[in-house]
Amino acid sequence: MFGRLPHVTPMLATLVAAAFHRHGWVYEEKLDGWRIVAHKEGPRVWLVSRTGRDHAGRFPRSPRPSAGYRRRR
Q1: 3-state secondary structure the chain
Q2: In the chain, what are the domain boundaries?
Q3: Suppose 39 and one of 3, 18, 43, 46 were both cysteines; which one would form an S-S bond, judging by CB atoms 3.0 to 4.6 Å apart?
Q4: What are the tens digits of pLDDT across the range 14-65?
Q5: pTM of the prediction?
């Protein structure tokens, strides 16, 4: 289905006592929900979970944030 896509695994969430903030670091705080990586190739968009499953069909009405971006090499 999406074998040509590069393998990118979402970072695992880690429970910590306090939020980590440091200049030059980019991260996201996972409060609730799913951790999914979006892949776009032409008009197709895949929403791939940490286990490699495509969940795009579960969100048919959700806006595709990657739809307006061009691919960088």
Answers
A1: CCCCCCCCCCCCCCCCCCCCCCCCCCCCCCCCCCCEEEEEECCEEEEEECCCCECHHHCCCCCCHHHHCCCCC
A2: 36-68
A3: 46
A4: 788 887 778 888 776 666 777 888 887 777 888 888 888 888 888 777 655 5
A5: 0.52
